Task: structure prediction
Amino acid sequence: KQEVTQIPAALSVPEGENLVLNCSFTDSAIYNLQWFRQDPGKGLTSLLLIQSSQREQTSGRLNASLDKSSGRSTLYIAASQPGDSATYLCAVNGANNLFFGTGTRLTVIP
Amino acid sequence: DAGVTQSPTHLIKTRGQQVTLRCSPKSGHDTVSWYQQALGQGPQFIFQYYEEEERQRGNFPDRFSGHQFPNYSSELNVNALLLGDSALYLCASRRMVSGGVEKLFFGSGTQLSVL
Result:
């Protein structure tokens, strides 16, 4: 069964810092990997989707990489802002459903 | 273009009761999945509906059941509620395509509290 792990569980950084969130998964047979943002008590907002054949995707200040063979993905956030404070979830798509990690709770201090 | 919409947003029930949650998928989407997210955890897959049939199911008991209507909207039913069913229930939709898997879009969820 696919298991997804996210490290660290929580992260606090001063505004303006660059940061990296990590995600690892046990089964490399995936279709794609998605990074989501979740604000407290809210649904999920998709940030980036990387197909299994891709190595990275970029959107604005966000860059996600995927190394399928080693079962790892990273989400890089440049020049962090207080509005980036949220929980970031990594999810791998095995076929018809997503397997989620438990998330990294990010706090950006003004 | 409305995204995925869920109702109600919040619900309080007591143990042993039954509950029905509703979801309307994003326009153009025909596949609906349901997820349960306990506090501090990642979402867990409950089941997926396509063409009005349950296509895949996660590790949830039969107390959890669902339905998809011809307009692609969906319901999640939970019978004999337990305290442990308290969670945020998320609906997600996408288009079913051959040879690939498209991005899932999530609703804002229904927060269920079982007392």
Notes: The mean pLDDT of chain B is 93. Chain B touches chain A through 27 residues (CB under 8 Å). The longest strand of chain B covers residues 87-94.
